Each structure stands twice: as C-alpha cells, then as structure tokens.
Amino acid sequence: MISKTIERRLGAAGAIVLGLFALTGELFMQRQAEAATAVDVVGALRATSAAPGATGTFRERSSVGASARAAGARTTLVVRAKSLAPNSTYQVRLSGKPIGTLATGAGGSGRAVFSTPTRARAQALPVDPRGRLLSVNDANGDDMLEGEVDDPTTPGGIQCCLNTAEEQGCDSLLPADCSAAGGIDMGAGTCDPDPCTQQGDDTDEDGGADGEVDDDAVNGEGGLAN
Predict the structure, then answer these.
(1) For residue 208, is it within any domain?
(2) Which of 96, 190, 218, 226 is 20 to 30 A from 87 in CA distance terms?
C-alpha cells in the first residue's frame, strides 16, 4: 500500500508505476514459493509382449507444502505413448482402474493429460497416482505399456520386493499394488539401501533352491531333526 505522502511527492503517474513494481515483486515471490513446493516424478513405461515395439513415458507433478495447502493441492499427470496402433483409443489405468483415455494419431503416437482439480483440456484425475501402477490398455483390456509412478513421498507406500520377468528388486508401491504384482511387502521405508538384494532367481515357493533342501528349514523350527 502506497502512503499518501509518497503519492503526493511522486504524483499520480509515479504512484502507479511504484504500485505496479510492488505488485510484480509480490507475484514473483508467489511464483517462486509455488515452484519450490512442486515435486516432479518422471518415468518410463515398459512395453509388454502385446506391443513389443511401443514406448511410453509419464510425468507427474504434485504441489506440496504450506502454499499448496493454502491454495488447495494440485496434481497433474501427463502420459505419452509412441508406436501404438494408429488412430486408436486406449484406456489409461491406475492400479487397474480406468481413469481416462489416450488417443493416437496416424503415426501411432498419443498424449493424455489428467489433473486435479480438473482444468481445461485435461481429464479428471480421481486418485493420487504416486505409488500406483500406471498402464495403457487396448480395447480388449490387454496391457500395452505399464510402469510404476515412484515417489518417495508416496502416501502409504511400502518397500515391495519384486522378482518377475519384467522387474526385479525393490520398488515403492502401495501394499495392494505390491500384492497384485506378486511382490513381497517388506514394510514401510525406502528402497535405498535395497532390502531385496538377497532375493535369488532360482528360489522356489518353499524358500529353497530347486532340488535342494533349505538350510534354514533343516536347522530351524519345524526342520529336520538331527
């Protein structure tokens, strides 16, 4: 607010210029605060056997911190895909639940934008994508592309040990997504250090190597007596 004394000394024109300068400074500081509270998560989508030549990426931006809480949390998810069937419509899913569509052009490329709150030219984003499995599915429901939206700030995220043909090691997922992927819930925490480094590819369901007796079963409770 410009004082009456300053306004008299500068005149009306000078006061207007000074007021605009002050407003610009306030807007700059506000933009800086908003930028400091934005968290970006960028990742790749893996091609499945149904579309081995396809590629995809995603970018998720979440506003966090005090300024975001004052203005309301904002999240944007952008999904891009290439080398899919041309002029086709695909379904985008989070943890297996449809959230919208992605349409490809003549070259087989497409882009879909989701946001909460919903903004112009964006589809509604009904759930927080952090820690969830993101997939692009065809009209038959088959996965064309898939990937996890990793984020250390995942609400309720756990350490999930995966040992599949597509992925091995630790990933930060929600418990339900970890179970759906056939992973082992290692509890709350981060994947650094990796709690899954001791997992082997040659272990069978009873915990021993194929054709061998588990040493822990021999020496532990319920094992073979000497």
Answers:
(1) no
(2) 96
- Which pLDDT does position 137 carry in this prediction? 97
Cis ω for the linkage preceding 52 (within 30 of 0): no
pLDDT over 70, % of the chain: 62
Residue at 77 is within a domain: yes
What does the block give as tokens for 158?
């756990």
Q: What angle do CA 207, 211, 217 make, to 5 degrees?
A: 40
Among 191, 188, 57, 41, residue whose Cα is nearest residue 111: 57
Residue 184 lies in a domain: yes
Render pLDDT for 74-104 as a digit per residue (tens, 0 to 9): 889 999 999 999 999 999 999 899 999 999 9
In this structure, are 57 and 137 located in the same domain?
Answer: yes
Residue of 104, 56, 97 whose CA lies nearest to 80: 56
Are 96 and 50 contacting, i.e. CB atoms less than 8 angstroms apart?
no
Is 224 a domain residue?
no
